[in-house]
Specification:
Distance between the termini of chain A: 61 Å
Radius of gyration of chain B: 28 Å
Distance between the termini of chain B: 63 Å
Mean pLDDT of chain A: 81
Number of strands of chain A: 20
Low-confidence stretches of chain A: 9-22, 208-220
Strand order of the largest sheet of chain A: 6-5-4-3-2-1-11-10-9-8-7
Oligomer: heterodimer
Number of strands of chain B: 0
Number of helices of chain A: 4
Helix content of chain A: 10-25%
Helix content of chain B: 55-70%
Chain lengths: 325, 165
């Protein structure tokens, strides 16, 4: 153990001078390269996701062609779950070993990869630096650290493939430098032709048409909301990028959805009229780096979701006000 | 002696030497034990299918023969020490069986894993009613820019029980 530690130290001091890039404040190239690679490369692989003392694996397939973006994410452990995207349409499949069926369908307006203003916001809120070069899953990668300028957001460390820019590994760290969540590709094929069938549901999957009671929220039912609500204590650097009335599965009435972004992390605020609030789960819950905080505000149920520390979602939820109050 | 046993097993001893070694083996139970150990090592190295079953039967018999657990515990301290040692030996024997089944019985391990995943994680989704909020958030979160659909792993993740701090 001791010898190993010593070896690490020795290796560190001998290897570090070899990488002149380390610790250099990078311009915005890497985030752009990563975003481009994520959306415009063909790849398929298996990654391990670690969070809250759990570890599970999932398979990811991504195709970018003339007709756009097609991707599939499926769980490899436990109950079968999969997401399949065809451009703006996302379907959520679930099932057992016999059959998969469509659980939900979402239609979304996706942002074009990293708008320039989002990039400058990113640079204002995080110190972006290159760190070590590492070999992950057989690929040479460059680590990039996004260090926040306050403790209301997490540190993100990403290992991007040197050649393609694809992310091979990502870790989210809290202020004590402890890992909140992490995912690592353990196997990855980059580029080349991937059959479209790989991002289609299994043959056993029930098609949408066979599910008569299946409701698809349409774009038209979403309206831009007028600012009847305000969130007073959004951390500095988060900007409101959207506010609208939207349908949410299982809700009879539309909910108000506000989205804030600091370029890397997002905070969503959902406001809905509170019915049967007794059965609602209030308070804080977590999944990896995503925290959810729910509270009753007057006659409304406020739900805050974000890739930010618990104290941030609580602070945001506590500061939701109806205009004129 | 070890050298001789090893050479004997490899069939490289001359007839006379082999007979002498076998004689020693018959007379001395300690060396007999060594003989069995060498065969075990050889079987494990060759990944022979029989190893797992034979060993576990042998160990099972030895465990059956052990008086540890059923003995009354108001005995003198030297007995207690003996019990502790034999208990430790039992644990080690069990560990050996477990290790061997992982090392040798390549087919048994995945079966065990499958059974576990079927029985333990039977919860259906959406388990907590928050998935729809997560989905709505993920579609608009800037993390989608950098991570793509990989960020959906939060919703696809098997572990549905939310932690209440």
């Amino acid at each position: 153990m001791k010898a190993r530690f010593l070896l690490t130290v020795v290796l560190y001091f001998t290897a570090v001078p070899a990488f002149a890039d380390i610790g250099r404040q990078v311009d915005l190239d890497w985030p752009q390269i990563i975003a481009f690679a994520t959306h415009q490369t063909n790849y398929s692989g298996t990654f391990v996701y670690q969070h809250d003392g759990h570890m599970e694996s999932a398979r990811m397939t991504h195709i970018y062609d003339q007709s756009g973006e097609h991707e599939k994410l499926e769980s490899m452990d436990g109950p079968r779950r999969a997401f399949i995207r065809n451009n703006n349409e996302v379907r959520w499949y679930s099932g057992d070993k016999n059959a998969l069926q469509v659980e939900r369908q979402y239609s979304s307006k996706r942002f074009p990869a990293l708008q320039p203003e989002l990039l400058s916001v990113l640079n204002e809120n995080y110190l972006i630096q290159t760190a070590e070069q590492a070999r992950i899953s057989g690929f040479d990668t460059q680590a990039i650290v996004f260090q926040p300028k306050d403790t209301l957001r997490y540190t993100h460390k990403m290992w991007a493939h040197m050649d393609s820019g694809l992310l091979l590994k990502t870790a989210v760290l809290d202020e004590r430098k402890e890992i909140v969540e992490q995912y690592t590709f353990i196997q990855l094929n980059i580029g080349g032709k991937i059959e479209r069938t790989q991002v289609m549901p299994d043959k056993s999957a029930t098609s949408l048409e066979q599910q008569p009671h299946f409701a698809t929220p349409s774009e038209t039912s979403e309206q831009a909301a007028t600012s009847e609500w305000k969130v007073a204590a959004v951390p500095t650097g988060f900007k409101k990028i959207m506010e609208k009335h939207r349908p949410l599965h299982g809700k009879k009435t539309n909910v108000i959805h506000l989205v804030f972004s600091d370029g890397l992390a997002g905070i969503s605020v959902f406001i809905e009229t509170s019915v049967n609030n007794l059965e609602k789960r209030l308070g804080l819950s977590s999944r990896g780096a995503i925290h959810v905080y729910r509270k009753i505000k007057d006659d409304y149920l406020v739900t805050v979701v974000g890739e930010v520390p618990p104290r941030t979602v609580i602070q945001v939820a506590d500061s939701v006000r109806q205009n004129g109050q | 002696m070890k050298q001789e046993i090893s050479t004997l097993m490899d069939g490289e001893l001359f007839d006379d030497d082999a007979e002498a070694t076998l004689d020693k083996l018959k007379r001395n139970p300690d060396i007999h034990e060594e003989w069995r150990t060498y065969h075990l090592i050889s079987d494990v190295l060759r990944q022979s299918d029989n190893v797992h079953a034979n060993i576990s039967i042998a160990i099972h018999e030895r465990l059956q023969a052990e008086p540890t657990i059923l003995s009354p515990h108001n005995r003198a301290s030297h007995n207690a020490r003996w019990f502790a040692l034999s208990a430790a030996a039992s644990v080690m024997a069990l560990t050996l069986v477990a290790w061997l089944s992982v090392q040798v019985g390549s087919e048994t391990a995945p079966q065990i894993a499958m059974q576990q995943s079927n029985t333990v994680h039977s919860a259906n989704l959406p388990a907590n009613g928050l998935d729809d909020y997560l989905m709505a958030h993920q579609e608009l979160s800037p993390s989608l820019n950098m991570h793509g659909m990989t960020s959906y792993v939060h919703t696809v993740a098997r572990q549905q029980e939310d932690q209440q701090p």
